[in-house]
Specification:
Radius of gyration of chain A: 27 Å
Shape of chain A: elongated
Helix content of chain A: 25-40%
Order of helices and strands of chain A: HHHHEHEHEEEHEHEHEHEEHEE
Oligomer: homodimer
Strand order of the largest sheet of chain A: 2-1-3-4-5-11
Largest sheet of chain A: 6 strands, parallel
Strand content of chain A: 15-25%
Number of helices of chain A: 11
DNA sequence: CAATTTCATGTAATCCATTACATTGCACCG
DNA sequence: CGGTGCAATGTAATGGATTACATGAAATTG
């Protein structure tokens, strides 16, 4: 039958992609068992729990495994055991250096606990987030750490194996780890106030993200404490990119309002802001002070070096992963939100308000 | 034979990790088939190739699937079909912005072809690389794109489903996509020469990476063409980090050799170099010109903005993925090395050699 | 109208490893 | 010496989806 075998009827849908002709399958336990003259069970045991196999058998099997170059099929294993020991970390944007440090923390804890981490870049797209989340529903991964302010829907029963890092969602069922953005932002603005600044502009992040709302809240709260009326004309909104920071400054300057300091919702926008200010002939920090948020690696290397709010990036990652693994080990642990604190790092981009403004 | 025998049953190896008590298993085709009053085959078909199932049945099944919240178990599917439609991209360092753009290119092509991409950060560790590569041997992924100058061993028969991007290995069996680093580096150094520089320092990258050797080669070749004797005292080696760039400058300056320009093997080291130069009272570019390599996103935002060699990052990623998918579809395609070209981007960190040096 | 396709669906084999349960053999006990 | 316990290993069920092959009904053909 099918002497030629190859392209039978093979009718295919239109949206389909070419299919590999290559069903190269690897070695199986069976082959190893045969070669080693033992049963499949013994081979499996020799590999999974060597201590319950006799010394001689174990060595013999290991030798055969090595000689034949056998790697157990993880799909079969995971199918059977219903665990993958794999965590997917969703990051909105690899290009954003803020996340790299968080990832480090995630990987550290994951590896300590015998998990592997795979990263999925979502570029803020819900579709992409959902696609990666579906891997959990499809049992290809055990859990998810997401750094967007959203939790994808996963149609499984019981607790969602999802932890929110850096961001958080209202849903009290979802574990989160993040910093106290209100306080952190207020601290930064307070610092500007102590430097004598009164007209402090604010470059906000996307309002869809709760942490951005919080940062704005902190900004307003600090002003309020100092009995300074909020001036909506001093606020611009950006999307976290360097370019957005530049555009925000263009906008602020075009409004004709004077200001002697800018607080930015993240470092990249601060970098853009500094650049735009300089290209408009303002000196940083002599004319205008700039403060960022995150303390990305490059913040130290801008000139002037950026004063910013340092998030405990590594700790955020570590803590999130710890929570996720806890939850994977025991779905009954109560959900919790863990709030870390962030510290202001003073560098060269801030200075006391100069006597003659503008 | 376990003379110890202490904890009888449930005895576990020492390196073991806690095991979840939760074998929460999801819905299965069987349940859906039962609920929809059809056979499992029909359910599977309705989901995989809807066009071969009758309109009515298909709709009915889809309704049931939705109602019951069913997601097919990908492990079972992949086990059966021996394909995962998953590509793992190994990147040495997420913190390095160079790779982000490459990843973009990878994801674009992958998605167009119905593949998902997962990223594995290796931090240059062979062990980590190997761990991710093993996923292919274990059939958890179809192929690998690696951005290190190494190809992990994968014990499978036939062609290794591996493509090297940005870097390349000697092995002619392995597909690679990279830029002509020799020419690119030479172009950059030529440019410095046309600006009148004669004493050009070089900050090399790790010599373990062929592309770094090539960049050094390009540097030397350009000097040679200009009949300038190579001066080993003007070369320092770094590991691609900003800090390495700073240290390299410290070293070069400490040697007491004068130089009016520095060519760096990547942008981050160039950023570090600029910073170190400035903190030593040298002006960039008035006293010393600096050139980088890669054209990372931040290169445009340093002050002065960095002159650098722009790699076609997106194209590198796209091309590598195209190759990999080709190879996955037909393991018989001949291996090839694809060399793209890189362009010099002139910005503010370079200037003609000033008349009075030092 | 009988013969032949075609279509829609069902039955059951298959992918590969894990593991509950069964079996064997030996040491040790009273 | 028969019985008990344990270590080592084997047999076979299991996980969940895909799909070759089989079947029956409807459509087409001469």
């Amino acid at each position: 039958m099918s002497a030629d075998g190859s392209r039978r009827k093979r009718q295919r849908g239109k949206g389909d992609h070419p299919v590999a002709a290559q069903p190269v399958r690897g070695k199986t336990v069976k082959e190893i068992a045969a070669a080693a003259n033992v049963s499949v069970a013994t081979v499996s045991r020799a590999l999974q729990r060597p201590e319950i196999v006799s010394e001689a058998t174990r060595q013999h099997i290991q030798e055969v495994v090595k000689r034949l170059g056998y790697t157990p099929n993880a799909l079969a294993r995971n199918l059977r055991t219903a665990r993958t020991r794999l965590i997917v970390a969703l990051l909105p944007d690899i290009a954003n250096p803020f996340f790299s440090e968080v990832i480090r923390g995630i990987e550290q804890v994951a590896h300590e606990s015998g998990y592997s981490v795979l990263l999925g870049e979502t570029q803020g797209s819900l579709v992409r987030e959902q696609a990666y989340a579906d891997m959990v529903a499809a049992r290809q991964a055990d859990g998810i750490i997401t750094m967007s302010p959203r939790v994808p829907a996963i149609p499984i029963q019981g607790r969602l194996p999802v932890v929110n890092a850096c961001e958080y969602v209202k849903d009290s069922q979802i574990c989160s780890v993040y910093v106290d953005n209100v306080t952190a932002a207020a601290t930064a603005v307070d610092y500007l106030l102590t430097l004598g600044h009164r007209e402090i502009a604010f470059i906000a992040g996307p309002p869809s993200s709760p942490i951005c709302v919080d940062r704005e809240l902190g900004y307003q709260r600090a002003l309020q404490h100092a009995r300074i009326a909020a001036n909506p004309a001093l606020t611009a909104v950006g999307d976290f990119s360097i370019e957005a920071g530049e555009r925000a400054i263009e906008l602020l300057l075009s409004r004709g309002q004077s200001f002697s300091a800018v607080f930015c919702s993240n470092d990249e926008m601060a970098i853009g802001a500094m650049r735009a200010l300089i290209s408009h002939g303002r000196r940083v920090p002599e004319d205008i002070s700039v403060v960022g948020f995150d303390d990305i690696r490059f913040a130290r290397y801008t000139s002037p070096a950026l004063t910013t709010v340092a998030q405990p990036k590594n700790a955020l990652g570590r803590e999130a992963t710890t929570m996720l693994i806890e939850l994977l080990n025991d779905p009954a642990v109560p959900p919790r939100k863990r709030v870390l604190s962030a510290d202001l790092v003073v560098r060269g981009s801030t200075a006391p308000r100069s006597p003659k403004p503008r």
